[in-house]
Design goal:
Elements lengths: L3 H17 L1 H10 L4 H22 L8 H19 L1 H6 L5 H12 L15 H29 L18 H30 L3 H12 L17 H14 L3 H8 L5 H4 L1 H20 L8 H16 L14 H10 L15 H19 L8 E2 L2 E2 L2 H27 L4 H12 L21 H15 L3 H4 L4 H5 L1
Length: 481
């Protein structure tokens, strides 16, 4: 395998990451915090490695084969996670490389699980860096979902292959053009979120960081109590609105800007996502215990915010819903696997796969009653190919297997069953908070053992990259092809 095209892409991304470290360095310098030197050094090292990789591969063909695309995708996320961990480690906000890498991977994958406590007194540069990582991770996920995963035919993503991306050789130039449009839309939505948070009463620094992590459906906050710290209904409503916007395919926004204003509502994913979210909020509202002095309106707001946060994989919290009782624990555990729409920053299994599952089951049921009938599966008005249905069924099976394996591994390293299962589900679905007193929405992952954190690091990566993108690298035949 020719690794030069891979190094070319990884080098560009590392150089971009290093340049992004300039912003927290400036913030710390202005605030009189010595950590600006940490970001400056980490940025220089990242840029040097990036330029080195790019320079060594410059002038080579930029076409990517399928195998190269698999390796490039995984290599890029791992490299960005490792170099992004340097500021956490060198600033001393975390005690070990394991914790630094955990925080960095959690940020890039927009998981939102954290090992840092005392966020209110943390250096401003570190808080901004956490937001930048999630913002860059969210943007990277969108581009990957549009350009790379459809070409790799991961878990039915071939449904969303753009006609211009007929072969791997066309991916790079077309992805460059499309990623520019997506980036502009992503920036515009983020700026709108900043303005909305400011109007709702947030300070500028909090508004900028929360906007980046809200639109990226990441969930990193500047406060230990997350959005619940502000105790503000307007702020919560802004967060809900932009968590939903972040869970809708960004390619539809690009189409809307270009004049196809009805594209958003015509997409069946969006309609199913909104309808399902509304139903789940009402269910949570009914099972939520009524606290003394609370009103039904405040209860609805708590249900709306926390269900939206968990379902979209953002991971913000305004209440410790793991203390709402057994029914609530089962409910929130189940919805953390759902996710948003394909092509968004959201995570989880994704709405379109549930739609394909429903169509497949419906076709089988019809065939039972009418063995000689011909029934065509459809998605968004188009015929659903059998290979897409098979890919989605395989994805569901693999998702369950990986979840079980991660949960068992976490249990073997000392976590109780509930904590192990919720941590596994949260990591694979990139949600952030788990359930229970140790990693619940009111806690952090700081108290877990290093072994558990390494398992979760792998789970966050494999979940964010749609399972097969990573697992295929462990198949010997892949390297012999």
């Amino acid at each position: 395998m020719d690794v030069r095209p891979i190094l070319l892409v990884v080098g560009l991304l590392l150089a971009t990451l290093g340049c992004a470290m300039i912003l927290p360095a400036i913030v710390d310098l202005v605030a009189g915090n010595d950590d600006w030197q940490v970001f400056a050094l980490a940025g220089v090292i990242s840029v040097l490695f990036g330029v080195g990789f790019y320079g060594g591969a410059r002038g080579t063909a930029r076409d990517l084969s399928t195998r190269q695309a698999f390796v490039m995708t995984v290599s890029a996320w791992v490299a960005l996670g490792v170099f992004g961990a340097l500021p956490y480690l060198w600033s001393g906000v975390v005690p070990s490389f394991t914790d630094a890498l955990f925080e960095s991977i959690s940020g890039l994958t927009t998981t939102g699980a954290t090992v840092i406590t005392g966020l209110e007194v943390a250096p401003p540069g570190i808080l901004l860096w956490r937001g930048i990582q999630q913002w860059l991770g969210g943007l990277g996920i969108i581009v990957m979902a549009v350009a790379v995963l459809p070409m790799l035919q991961i878990g039915g993503m071939q449904l969303f292959k753009i006609e211009a991306f007929e072969t791997a050789e066309k991916i790079m130039p077309r992805a460059t053009q499309l990623s520019g449009s997506l980036t502009l839309v992503f920036v515009a939505v983020t700026v709108a979120c900043v303005i909305a948070y400011l109007l709702a009463g947030m300070e500028l620094d909090d508004a900028v960081i929360h906007a980046m992590t809200t639109v990226a459906t990441g969930g990193f906050s500047t406060k230990d109590a997350s959005i619940g710290h502000f105790r503000s209904t307007p702020i919560e409503l802004v967060a809900v609105a932009f968590m939903i916007l972040g869970s809708i395919p960004f390619l539809l926004y690009v189409q809307a800007v270009r004049g196809k204003t009805l594209a958003l509502w015509r997409d069946s994913q969006v309609r199913v996502f909104i309808a399902l979210l509304a139903i789940l909020v009402l269910i949570a509202w009914q099972i939520e215990p009524i606290e003394e002095g609370a009103t039904r309106a405040s209860g609805f707001m708590a249900a709306l915010f926390n269900v939206t946060s968990v379902m979209t994989g953002t991971g913000y919290a305004t209440a410790n819903y793991s203390a709402w009782g057994p029914a609530a624990n089962v409910f929130f555990f189940m919805i953390m696997f759902i996710g948003g729409c394909a092509g968004s920053t959201s995570c989880g299994i994704k709405i379109f796969r549930f739609q394909v599952l429903f169509e497949t089951i419906r076709q089988h049921v019809r065939r039972i009653f009418y063995p000689n009938g011909i029934f065509v599966m459809r998605f968004n008005g188009r015929v659903l190919p059998d290979n897409v249905s098979a890919a989605v069924m395989s994805f569901f099976f693999l998702y369950a297997m990986v979840f079980a394996a991660v949960a068992i591994a976490l249990n073997l390293v000392g976590l109780d069953v509930i904590t192990a299962m919720s941590a596994a589900g949260s990591a694979i679905s990139n949600v952030g908070p788990g359930l229970g007193p140790e990693i619940g929405p009111a806690e952090t992952y700081q108290g877990l053992s290093d072994a558990a954190k390494w398992i979760l690091i792998f789970a966050m990566l494999i979940g964010r990259l749609e399972l097969l993108t990573v697992l295929v690298l462990f198949v010997p035949r892949f390297w012999r092809a």
